[in-house]
Amino acid sequence: MDSVVDRLRVRVQKALAFITDPVRTFFGMNSRDFASQRMCPFCGLITSRRKNCCLECGKSLKPA
């Protein structure tokens, strides 16, 4: 009985991965994007790493 449940669980996990992986790549959601923030050295606001200037003070940030 346990082996049947385990096989079913593995199939469901594979099906979910088959669906979610393309969706994540389409929207640009990678696991490394969650820690991609930096602090502005001028005002201290935390800004996205993708931005080239601070959202608060507008000063240019160094390229990431």
What descriptive keywords fit this protein?
64 residues; mainly alpha; two-stranded antiparallel ribbon; 1 helix; rod-shaped
Q: Could you walk me through the main structural features you see in this protein, from its secondary elements to its overall organization?
A:
The model has no long low-confidence stretch (mean pLDDT 80). This protein is mainly α and 64 residues long. The protein has one domain. It contains one helix and two strands, in the order αββ.
Indicate the topology.
Layout: H1 2-27, E1 37-39, E2 46-48
Antiparallel strand pairs: 1-2
Largest sheet: 2 strands, antiparallel
State the shape. Answer: rod-shaped
What is the helix fraction of residues, given as a range?
40-55%
Approximately how much beta-strand content do the residues carry? 5-15%
N-C termini distance:
53 Å
Uncertain stretches of 5 or more adjacent residues:
none
The assigned structural class equals mainly alpha
Q: What is the total tally of β strands? A: 2
Q: Quote the average pLDDT.
A: 80
What does this entry show, briefly?
The chain is built from 1 helix and 2 strands; from the N terminus they run H-E-E.
